[in-house]
Amino acid sequence: MSDILLEIRDLKKHFPVTKGLLFQETIGLVKAVDGVSYAIGVGETLGLVGESGCGKTTTMKMILMLERPTSGSIIFRGDDIQGLGGKGLQAYRKGVQAVFQDPYSSLNPRMRVGDIIAEPLVVNESLPKATVRERVQELLSLVGLRPISSDLFPHEFSGGQRQRIAIARALSLNPSLIILDEPVSALDVSIRAQIMNLLQDLQEQFGVGYMLIAHDLAAVLHLSTNVAVMYLGKIVEQATSEQLRVEPLHPYSKGLFAAALPAHPDEPREEILITGEIPSPLNPPSGCHFHPRCPFVKPICSEVEPQLLQVTTGHRVACHLYSESA
Ligand code: SF4
C-alpha cells in the first residue's frame, strides 16, 4: 500500500436499546460496528460492501464525525481525529468530503449551482469573489459541465448532471479523501458508467482517495483498490479487488459475488447461494454471526467466533475453514 491516508483501528459503535417512556431501561445493545480495522492509502479506493444493516453507513458517519465512536480510533494522516480541535479539526473537515446517493435531495434547490459549488470555499477560505468565480468555472469544467451551469438551479439538471455538481462541490476544497455513499445507485443504468469513469479520472488527476459504499458489486470491484466485506458490524473478508473478483474465500463473499457477477469461463469460481434473512443485530447468532446461513457450517462455528486472519498477502478472512485452530 502507498502512504496511509486514513486508518481505522478497532472501531466500534454500539447503540443502546431502551424500553419505557419515563424511566428508560437499557435492554440490549445493537453493535452496528463492532471492531472494524482497515486503512486507505493515498490516492486509493477502499470499497465497503455488504447487505443493508451491516454497518457500512454507521462507519461512514463516524468518519464524517456525524456519529461518535463507542471506542476505537480514526487516524487521518497520523492524527487521531477525536483529539483534533481548532485548525487541526478544520483541516480534517476540509480534507474529507462526501458525495451522497441522492443528488435530488443533497443539493439546495433554492441556490444557484455556482453558489452551491462555491459555498465550501466561501465558508472555509477568505478568497476574493473573482477567485471564487474562477474556481467554480474550473470545477464545472473538471466535471464536464458548461460554464453557464453556474447560473442555473439544480432542478434544471438531470440526475447524472446533479451528481456531477455534487462531485464539483466535494472537490472544491481539494480534499484528500471523498466518501462516496452509493454515488450512482439513484441514477439510470446508462449514466452510471459515465459517473464512475469521471470519478476514476478525477482520482488519477488529483490523487484523491475514495471510500466507496455501494450495492453494485461490479462497480465496486472496477473502482476499488481494496474491498472490505462487512456482515453484522464486522469485516468478514478483506482483499484486493482482483483477489475478490477471482477467488472470494468467505462463504458470505462467495454468495454475494456469485449473485452479482457472472463467473468468467477461464476463471471458474465456486458459486454458492445464500438463503435466509440477516439476523437481528440486537441478538446476533453466537460464534460466527453467519453460521445460520452458511452452507459450510461446522460444529465450532456456532461456538467460537473466527478472527480476521491473513491467508495470503493482502487477503484476510474471518472463517474457521481457513483457521488452523479449527
Ligand atoms: Fe461458515 Fe463457519 Fe466459516 Fe462462519 S466460520 S463462514 S459458519 S464455515
Structure report:
- Helices cover 30% and strands 25% of the residues.
- Helix 3 packs parallel to helix 5 (159-171), helix 4 packs across helix 5 and helix 5 (159-171) packs parallel to helix 6 (189-206).
- The protein has helices at residues 56-63, 86-95, 113-124, 129-142, 159-171, 189-206, 217-223, 241-246, 251-260; strands at residues 4-19, 25-41, 45-49, 71-76, 79-80, 96-99, 177-181, 209-213, 226-231, 234-240, 309-312, 315-317.
- By secondary structure, the chain is α/β, with parallel strands linked by helices.
- The protein has 9 helices and 12 strands.
- The model has no long low-confidence stretch (mean pLDDT 91).
- The protein has an 8-stranded mixed sheet, sandwiched between helices. A 4-stranded antiparallel sheet has the order 2-1-4-5.
- The structure holds iron/sulfur cluster.
- The site of iron/sulfur cluster has 14 residues, from loops.
Write the SSE topology.
Layout: E1 4-19, E2 25-41, E3 45-49, H1 56-63, E4 71-76, E5 79-80, H2 86-95, E6 96-99, H3 113-124, H4 129-142, H5 159-171, E7 177-181, H6 189-206, E8 209-213, H7 217-223, E9 226-231, E10 234-240, H8 241-246, H9 251-260, E11 309-312, E12 315-317
Parallel strand pairs: 3-8, 3-9, 6-7, 7-8
Antiparallel strand pairs: 1-2, 1-4, 4-5, 9-10, 10-12, 11-12
Helix pairs in contact: 3-4, 3-5, 4-5, 5-6
The structure holds iron/sulfur cluster.
